[in-house]
């Protein structure tokens, strides 16, 4: 019997299964390109739509690389998630040279968001508008005192959503963060911030769960399902799984690949059962290209569905089996 790809199985179920990718991986690595087009029906720009990539000099916007990614996606019938408009990281040097005043910061942020969202208008069904603004290094998880907060104050958040919505009213707008999949504190604080934005009528449509974790720390299927239901019931928002990677030890201990497969399976099972989480994106194509190794100085590795030699792992087959069993 012909093996049906993850992409075919997901598409048949009305799900978006994707990966983060760098344009160079698609253009220079045929094996990587082959996996992306065969196995996924959507992609996220891992880096090429960030502030420093799109506005490397003040007022100078460079869209060529991101545009090539969009052309590739269109050619292969894939959707693209926009990532990300407002973040404390990946800012160009010119923006950080000196403290900004409120009026100047408002102008810069508005110009960036309007220019970028307008440029991609109609081509990005989803945007991560605001990324990672809850300070988990601070007791009480206050809002991060990032560059925009320092210059503008907390109203930069609602303004960002307003400007993005005005530039492309059809795109669904997300708040996106890590460590929302388990633990009460950060999740609770995030809900509070979103309610604050909703009270001010900010056009916010969804919550992105990045889901960078390790098997021992992953929530149970039931617990994660309950969380996805809270996103709908308490906030009235849709949820997306935006940056999944399930990190293992670099040495790859016996049993870890199976544990990883079970985590991937249970996340997708919860997403499907919730009826409120149609997007499932892994943070990279295959283990050859993962930020995790670099970030953990080599201690953690092997986070994705395909290994360093582009071979499908047990996690890949677990997702296919689950989709096949539900594909009706
Ligand atoms: O994977 C990305 C890595 O290549 C970049 O160097 C880094 C800084 O721009 O960002 C990484 O992606 C992050 C994402 O944009 C937001 N959530 C956490 C991701 C991993 O750090």
Protein model, in words:
Helix 10 links the parallel strand 5 (172-177) and strand 6 (206-209). The strands form 2 sheets. This protein has an 8-stranded parallel β-barrel, surrounded by 6 helices. Strands 9-11 form a two-stranded antiparallel sheet. The longest helix has 19 residues, at 256-274. 45% of the residues lie in helices and 16% in strands. It is globular, with a radius of gyration of 19 Å. It has helices at residues 6-12, 23-28, 30-39, 51-54, 64-75, 93-96, 102-119, 147-152, 155-167, 185-199, 221-235, 256-274, 291-295, 314-326; strands spanning 16-21, 42-45, 79-86, 126-131, 172-177, 206-209, 212-213, 238-246, 248-249, 279-282, 300-301. The relative contact order is 0.13. The structure holds ligand 9MR. Residues 46-47, 50, 89-90, 131, 210, 243, 291 line the site of ligand 9MR. Ligand 9MR is lined by residues 46-47, 50, 89-90, 131, 210, 243, 291.
Could you list the spans in which at least 5 consecutive residues all have pLDDT below 50? none
Global mean pLDDT: 97
Order of strands in the sheet with most strands: 1-2-3-4-5-6-8-10
Fraction in helix: 40-55%
Query: Main beta sheet: strand number and arrangement?
Result: 8 strands, parallel, barrel
Shape estimate: globular
